[in-house]
User: Fold these one by one.
Assistant:
Number 1:
Amino acid sequence: MSDTLFRHGKKRFYDNTKFPRGFAKSGDFTLGEEEILTLYGDTMQGLESGLLEPENAEEKHFVKVLANPGKAKSKLERVWLKYVQLARGRKRFHTLNGRTKPDIIGVDDYSDEEASLVEED
């Protein structure tokens, strides 16, 4: 990421509450995305919160992307939006059981006459 004008953070960025084992070990981020977050995350967080003022065109565009995520162009902007979604968004929870039971008719549910009619079809 040496081709970017974005400032490195004053310290490495970690989120020990949502990603206690690290970004890459969470399974949500690649090693490259983890590197972007740890190097630039402190600056991106400062720009988002208003503690830092943008110093160049790339940082100004980042601030605009925060207001309108559809305009994200750079990998750095997309990684930050992904981080925000995973860290602050609702966590999806998938269950194995559904809320409604499907109408499954077993062999035991038929009378002898109905079962013979089903077998003939």
Number 2:
Amino acid sequence: MDTFVAVNNFGDTRSGGLAGPMGLFVIVLMSIATVLLIRNMNKRLRRLPDSFPDVRQTQREAEIARLNADLERSGAGEAPSDVEAGRSSAAGAATDNEVTGVTTQSDGGSADGDDRRV
């Protein structure tokens, strides 16, 4: 009959008794760090606003403010009268319709003339 005997090839297991307490210390330290990070994250999330402003609207307002500042700096508050005299009222009306998206066609087509899109 063959008998197998387990052989301890790991050396003396009683002299290296520091691994267990060090592992426990590392786990406790990581748990404390996790709790502190979660508390800090919750505190920062509570300070955030409910909603953020629209980026495009903010960019538009900044562009308008910049253009107004450029106009005030250049001293050209109003357009010269000869510029206004050269404009026709029909061209202004067509531009207004195009900008607002009002259709000028009687059949209800789209503003850009493409009848395939609704």
Number 3:
Amino acid sequence: MILLAGLLIAAAVLLWGRSRRRLPVLLARGNTLTPAQRGNPAGKPRAPGAEDAVTVIAQSAALLRIGATPHSCFAHLARAHEGDQLGPPLHRVARAIELGTRPQRAILQHTGALPAETAQVFEGLGAAWHVAETSGAALGDVLETLAQGARDGVDARRERDVALAGPRATVSVLSWLPLIGLGLGALIGADLLAVLTGSPWGAATMAGGTALLLLGRWWMNRMLTACTQPQTGRR
């Protein structure tokens, strides 16, 4: 019984430590290191995020402002991101444009396999490119405006994740409290399981407490999920 209590307390401590580490990790996502420098300890670059795609859009705007062609623009971007996972899809986009594919189609074809948020930013890049070509607007200005809007969206999602890190950690910790209580009771010599299972009132208390715990966890997860989903306006 004492060994069981020790294991329960150790598991709770480990869970609490993992929850507290979420906030620094989320804050670190906004650093200014290159994607290759933000690789994992084994040296393998991490999957490109939406902020990396925003950087590509800003770089595209700068290159187009100095007169780069679509092919040379993406070829330069592919070389600039050669050390991370954006390099291969950008190289394929440049190659497709060189072979005569329109930029919007090339972008959508070769960036769709990236993570969802990253692919969504590239989809906006393709749409902006198409709008600029069909309307005659200055492509550099359009992409600069798109980059700013996408950057604001990335910052908003990061702030949301940071704000929800605390509630998520609280849900995890509160879910473990009943087991921690049983472990502490065992440490002081109280056989709480016998009390809870030895009489109808104890069994009813345990069943009601378990039901309320599961209901509370479900409700909290539902609220957290609602906070991460886009809200649609009502007519």
